[in-house]
């Protein structure tokens, strides 16, 4: 759909802009295809490509944090008001 729009753009602009149509069409082409490429990249962030999120690392860190919560012994409430030195 973007290709069709880009191919139809120069005839629409030529009457008003003349030869300025060429750089404007180039800028529009770069912009539209760039936004399309960005959309394709962020469409699936949970893969193993270089620019995907490191979900395995996130899960590993979360597991370590949860394990550390359960490693410590709960404090005895009777000891809460005693001074420690």
From TrEMBL:
Signal peptide feature range: none
- Whether rRNA-binding counts among this entry's keywords is no
Question: Can you provide one Gene Ontology molecular function annotated for this UniProt record?
Answer: chloride channel activity
Membrane topology designation: Multi-pass membrane protein
Entry keywords, A to Z = Cell membrane, Ion transport, Membrane, Transmembrane, Transmembrane helix, Transport
Q: Which InterPro entries match?
A: YneE/VCCN1/2-like
Would I find Iron among this entry's keywords?
no
Q: Name one GO cellular component term.
A: plasma membrane
Localization annotation: Cell membrane
Q: Cross-referenced PANTHER family, in alphabetical order?
A: UPF0187 PROTEIN YNEE, VOLTAGE-DEPENDENT ANION CHANNEL-FORMING PROTEIN YNEE
What is the official name of this protein in its record?
Uncharacterized protein
**Taxonomic classification:** Eukaryota, Fungi, Fungi incertae sedis, Mucoromycota, Glomeromycotina
